[in-house]
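Q: Got a minute? One more chain.
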Amino acid sequence: MAATGENHSMIIVDKELRKLEEQQIPIKVGLVGAGAMAEGLVNLMVNSVPGMRLAAISNRTVEKAVDCYNKAGIEQVQEAETCSAIEEAVADNRRVVTSDFNLLCEADGIDVVIDLTGAVEFGAGLALKSFDCGKHLVSMNAELDSMLGSVLQKKAGKAGVVYTLSDGDQPGVEMNLWRFVKGIGVEPLVCGNIKGLQDEYRTPTTQAGFAEQWKQNVNMVTSFADGTKISMEQACVANATGMQVEMRGMRGGDFTGHVDELCQNGRYDVDRLRELGGVVDYVVKARPSPGVFVVGTTSDPMHQRYLKLYKLGDGPLYSFYAPYHLCYFELPFSIARTVLFQDAVLQAQRPMVDVICMAKRDLKAGEALDGLGGYTHYGQCENYPVVRSEGLLLQGLAEGCVLVRDIPKDAAIKLDDVVLPDERLSDRLRKEQDQLFPV
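A: Always. Here it is, folded:
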């Protein structure tokens, strides 16, 4: 039997938010991105979260930002085209939207910026602008952090602000659990993610029905199904904890039992896990879904005795898990942790794991690679030294690359196999990160 790791970040945070509400000095939040996730977050913040005010939303099409407010019951919304207009609206407690995220970052009165975009190139620009303007950044953009988290942390530190991934998404929930396990004197050796489906060859065509049913972006839904998103999430965890992957793509695979049983079925070897400094992994169809798990060990005889008494088994591996992740519902806790306590949920340290680009089908020279969750490629985890030594193309840089040779299905695409688009911010930041962190 395992220990269920609940998210205790709300403790203390909820009391502090109530104090802010009573004192009428709420945390003022600027949100970038008005997709499906934003709809839920806006409704939550407007109607259920004390001590916090959603002051402004930026989205390329402002109609979507206005619609988020309207669905939360806010009918009076102002569109701003200047920084001063946003500042005046925030000061007067009027809800405001803008198509220019730069104005939102520049505006005085906003304490923290939220990235709900999931876009690498755009997210990189948003991050640097937030730091330049002295704004904390709380992000659900695992796509960006998995590839550039380490260099962005350096830049956030120099700017004196906090940059963090959030509670609610699997990486943040895993990190909360990892911290809990370490805190009780157990050594975490596996950080794991539980999936319901994994099929590398899913495309926007196969996922269109599901995306329509849940009003989700079809490419994002496809990235969940084809394994790209979970690879990015686990890379974020690896880069924050110092863990690696045991093999390209992680162990993965179907497992229909409970995650507790992973401690007894021979899947993991304690000595090997320690040699690697711990690993990130995932399983498909395991219980409890859609949760996360941490497998740990201890050599302390008293710990071993009492862990057995408390029904965690004979060891040497012990299972801890959270049975769910609640996405936007938990994001306000991240905002409060960041602004009130400078307590980041997840921050990349040095690069340990990258997400590389694998051919989803036979590809021909002259083809242009599409974006995340598309038709041409899927992502898999690989250890950073291998990525560097083999010159592998990162999944986050694949969009717009043109192939110079044929690539067979399931082959890893290399940098030498493509012509990159004209240099992008994400390319420059990745080069900087590689220089900061040599193999």
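A: The first strand starts at residue 3 and ends at 4.
Q: Perfect, thanks.
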